Structure formats: structure tokens, C-alpha cells
Amino acid sequence: MKPNTEYTRRDWDSHPPYIVPDYKSTLLRGPKKPLIPIPHSLSELTGPVFGHDKVGPLDHDLTKNGVQNGDPLGERIIVTGRVLDEAGRPVPHTLVELWQANAAGRYVHRWDQHNAPLDPNFFGGGRTVTDAEGRYRFITIKPGAYPWGNHHNAWRPNHIHFSLFGPSFVTRLVTQMYFPGDPLLEYDPIYQGIPEVSRSRLISRFSLDVTEPMQALGYEFDIVLRGPRATPVDED
Amino acid sequence: MPKQTPSQTVGPYFAYGLTPQPYGRPGIADGRIVNETVPGERIIVTGRVIDGAGKPVIDSMIEIWQADAQGRYAHPADGREADFHGFGRTGTDETGTFRIETVKPGSVTGSDARPQAPHLNVTVFARGMPNHAYTRIYFSDESAANESDAVLGLVDAGRRGTLIAARQETAGGPVYRFDINLQGDAETVFFDP
């Protein structure tokens, strides 16, 4: 990357605000003072680069990476897509981390008190690195919905958490992927906190092409990170 | 042109995915950014993440991205060979405390081609934060460099102190204290880089 390149800014028409009143824990945790824009120096134009040494052979396959004595229960799915920048160019060789509840809607996390069962053969965490075309592919179990304490009878829609780095510290993104047709989306303040124009970008597409016969349903989910923006160069 | 994918909170249960070492799984990083062989002054940076009611945030995560003691980043945009990877990640504990073991970074050239004061780049993630927050940790024993730092210069003088970690000399070496206040009168300055 040339030093005269900057990244585009966070698009606040696409991202949720820090404080979403219906998502109650944002009220005391979202910064309230205006963010201060800063120019991009090497501190912003660089960021951690992770190689395949951080990724084990089963890390992308959540149906295998937690097995103790059998296969995990639930509906096997394939989740695949491309990581792109805002110019539509692939983001190659970038780390993608993922975590999720099991088919019953229970997280392995030691604080999760939901009375749904743990699955001894499902851990729920994985990671991979995109290929030269920015593609990633996970095999997993469709996560269940789970109840939470935000309001009476609150349930999170089925979702998978994603964490991405992209090429610099400013392209970092943590997000959640949802499933098409989920009736809980309408009632979920975390999803509804996203501006209406951009919400649907978090809903994966069912794909019969990705679906493997007799094996697993396929979902596609592309992720768009901030892209490089060339700054004007004096011509003389 | 495609548009940015919206951010969402890490939620309460990110630990086994992002900081999974307590679950018996290797993580991509932890709070120990350097090993014994990395040159530079060894420092500890520690503090608490605190919410708008003054309570510790026990389910947050801090990431650090930093230059080495010579001010070099391990990244192609820098182009020089750095002494280490320079990335750290750690959750906060039951008191909201995080702890980073590293070396003090050197000065990095700013976008105006002038040297910046030494700093750590920080992102903060938590349940209840739909977006991560960006801040920087500067060092109290660098007052002259801090005075002329272009990014600190963008911050109201009355709030600059929220970005400066206080150095204490201890038997175990220098410890810098840096609390992250998500809200309130002492709200940490957050950037929009």
C-alpha cells in the first residue's frame, strides 16, 4: 500500500449508533461525547496480519472441532461468502473468527445460564483465513434462538458472531450474521438498532448451490469492510 | 459499490470465541504482547473499563496494536522489519480490569510527517456496545512529545488527560495506569479514525 492512501471513514448511515435505547445495556456503555475524527498515520494504516499458523486444520469445521464422543446435534449448515472492500475488491488472506450458540440456543460460555442443554460435541468457536479471492467457508450447526434479559420475553434471533480484521486497524469489524425469514428479527433491538437501509446486509442468503446433497444446507454471507481511499496527489 | 457491513456488539459470550485460552483452546493473541527476547523497555499497562454508573465492565475486551521500540509496525504499509507482531487482546476480569505486558513503543511518524508521541492504539469491545470504540494510550513520562502530538492537539486540553496513562515505578518495573471510562465527566476520548 502506498503511504498516500487513506481508508474510507466509518459509514454512520450503515452502522448502529452507540446508544440504542431499546437495547438497554447500551445506555450506560455507549460513549456520549462526540467522537474525534483523526487523520490516518501509520498507526491507522497498519494492523495485525495473521497467517495460517493461527488456524488449525479443523478450526473452520465446527461440526468436528468440538467432537468428544460423536457428532454434534442439529442441522448441519455451510456458511460461506466473500470479504470485500467498498470498491468490491476481495480482501484476501484475512482472519475471520466466528462463535455461536449450539442448536439448542446454548453457549459454551461459563456465564450462560440458559437451561437449554449443552452439546458435548459442539464447542461453537472457529476461525479461518480468506483465500486469494477473499472467500471463507465454515461448516457448522445452525444456532438456536436464545432468551435474554433485555425485556419481557426477549429472544435473540438465530445468529452467528463474526470478527474480522481486514488490512488495517481501522478496517476492524465485529458483526452478527442472521438467517432469512427469522420471525424474531422484527423484535430484536440489537438488529433493529441498525439503520433500516443497512439492516438487511446482515441477513445471509439461502443457496441451493452451496447446499451439499444429503449433507448440509448452504448460506452465503458477504462482508464489506472499509476500503482504501486514495488521497489527492499534487500533480506538477 | 458495496456498502459497509453494519457492526454489531460482541455480546456477552465472546470469550470462548475470541479469548478462548481459559477454555483450553489456543487464541490468536493474549495480553502478553512481547516475549523475553524483544528489545525495549518492559512495561505493564493496566486499568479498568468503567460504565456510566461507575461500575466495572466485566464483559469487555481490549485490543492493542502498537509499534516496536523503534517505532516500526509489523505491516507492509510500514515496510520495515519490526521486532514483534505488536498485537494484543485481553478480556476484562470480574473487577473490569485488563492487563497488558509489552514494551514501550517508539515514536511513529504522523500523517503530517512530524513524529507522534509514543502511543498504543486501542479498540474497546463490550456487550452493550454496538460498535467498538477507538482510543489511544499515551504515556505520562512523555510530556514534551505529548505537547506537540498532532492527534492530542485535536483534543480539548481539558480532556487530553483521559488519553495519558500515569506511570508508576514498582518493584516489578514500570506500570502505567489507564482507566477507560465509557461515559461520564471523565469519559475517555474516543476517536473516529
Automatic annotation (TrEMBL), chain A:
Pfam families: Dioxygenase_C, PCDO_beta_N
Gene source species: Skermanella aerolata
Signal peptide: none
Record protein name field: Protocatechuate 3,4-dioxygenase subunit beta
Xref: NCBIfam families: protocat_beta (TIGR02422)
Gene behind this protein: pcaH
SUPFAM superfamilies documented for this protein: Aromatic compound dioxygenase
Gene3D superfamilies: Aromatic compound dioxygenase (2.60.130.10)
CDD domains associated with the record: 3_4-PCD_beta
Molecular function per GO: ferric iron binding; protocatechuate 3,4-dioxygenase activity
Keywords: Dioxygenase, Oxidoreductase
From TrEMBL, chain B:
Domain of life: Bacteria
SUPFAM superfamilies documented for this protein: Aromatic compound dioxygenase
Matches recorded under Pfam families: Dioxygenase_C (PF00775)
Keyword Hydrolase applies: no
Domain spans labelled Intradiol ring-cleavage dioxygenases: 45-73
Keywords from the named record: Dioxygenase, Oxidoreductase
GO MF assignments: ferric iron binding; protocatechuate 3,4-dioxygenase activity
Coiled coil regions, renumbered to chain: none
Family designation: Belongs to the intradiol ring-cleavage dioxygenase family.
Protein name as it appears in the record: Protocatechuate 3,4-dioxygenase subunit alpha
Organism expressing this protein natively: Skermanella aerolata
Name of the gene: pcaG
